[in-house]
């Protein structure tokens, strides 16, 4: 059973989304949260948020998610709160050990981006038994979680699929497309795939599909080489790649096979190297999911939960999702944006993720100038 959202947020400019979020919190505060919330306060500012992230191969986790969450927790607690952080480095058993250590350390709340949504359920239950709230971050974990912070992940796949169909245009019907899906143990993978297939099926000819264990680029590259041998280099019209790390590996395989023109390749996460590939024309698009909105709001939800501020918690978690083990989980679903060379300024630069200098290094200076990014 896949997670079901009872309300899908529209794809809106991130500045508007942030304004709406801040407005909701302001209204909550004006609604008398001071008196209502104070009665249920569980702890003050001297709290500890446990943060479990899944791997280091995905650049965003170390570069954005952890620092943003750490900074926001400090801001929300007048520098009295802290984050106990651990990265599983793509090991399910290591993540379980890290989870159990945080329970033993008696952290006040755990934010977990689960490597395996099913196996993590027993650890979530142990935390629940110990009175520690668990918030699923980025990926929906099974077990008795208290909230979920992510994006509309089916919409992510839809955005990717639409990008391929739109770029192929009138040629789409007869075009051969390879799908490079993510890790089947990641609950988001099925939703990305469902969203993409909803746009691609009946529009293009999907000739090969691959799952990619642990999202490893090396596996994606090996599978892309298989696809090239099976389908033929010149016959591949586009590649659906579920994220940017795999997109880079797919493009490497195509270039090594002798491709003089790279077909449209999708991605997700807006990694810096992916944005640079988009500038140069090697990668067609990526899905930009605001790290700022996701991470800072996850910190807000975690702190509100620990401190018993139910009005603020409810204002932040206005969506609900279902997991295979739980229904009506309070959720925040952050909007997503299709990033192409046409809107780099309006997305990652406006949001302060990267500067023009970050993107337009010497290697990409001419390409940046060609699209007015200088």
Brief synopsis:
The chain has 15 helices and twelve strands. It has helices spanning 14-30, 33-38, 59-76, 92-104, 121-129, 153-168, 187-200, 217-231, 244-256, 272-280, 291-307, 310-316, 345-349, 356-359, 365-370, and strands at residues 48-53, 82-87, 109-112, 134-137, 147-151, 176-180, 205-210, 236-241, 286-289, 319-323, 326-334, 336-339.
Provide a descriptive summary of the structure in words.
The protein is of the alpha/beta class and 374 residues long. The protein is built from 15 helices and 12 strands. The strands form 3 sheets. Strands 2-1-3-4-5-11-10 form a 7-stranded mixed sheet, with helices on both faces. Helix 6 runs parallel beside helix 7 (187-200) and helix 8 (217-231) packs across helix 9 (244-256). The protein is globular, with a radius of gyration of 21 Å.
Overall, the morphology is: globular
Tell me the total number of β-strands. 12
Give the terminus-to-terminus CA distance: 47 Å
Average pLDDT works out at: 89
Helix content: 40-55%
The Cα radius of gyration reads 21 Å
Order of helices and strands: HHEHEHEHEEHEHEHEHHEHHEEEHHH
The side-by-side strand order for the widest beta sheet comes to 2-1-3-4-5-11-10
The largest pleated sheet is described as: 7 strands, mixed
Structural class: alpha/beta
Residue stretches low in confidence (pLDDT < 50, at least 5 long) are 1-41
Strand content: 15-25%
Number of helices: 15
Oligomer description: single chain
List the defining traits of the structure above:
about 45% helix; three-stranded parallel β-sheet; disordered N terminus; single chain; 15 helices; alpha/beta; globular; about 375 residues; seven-stranded mixed β-sheet
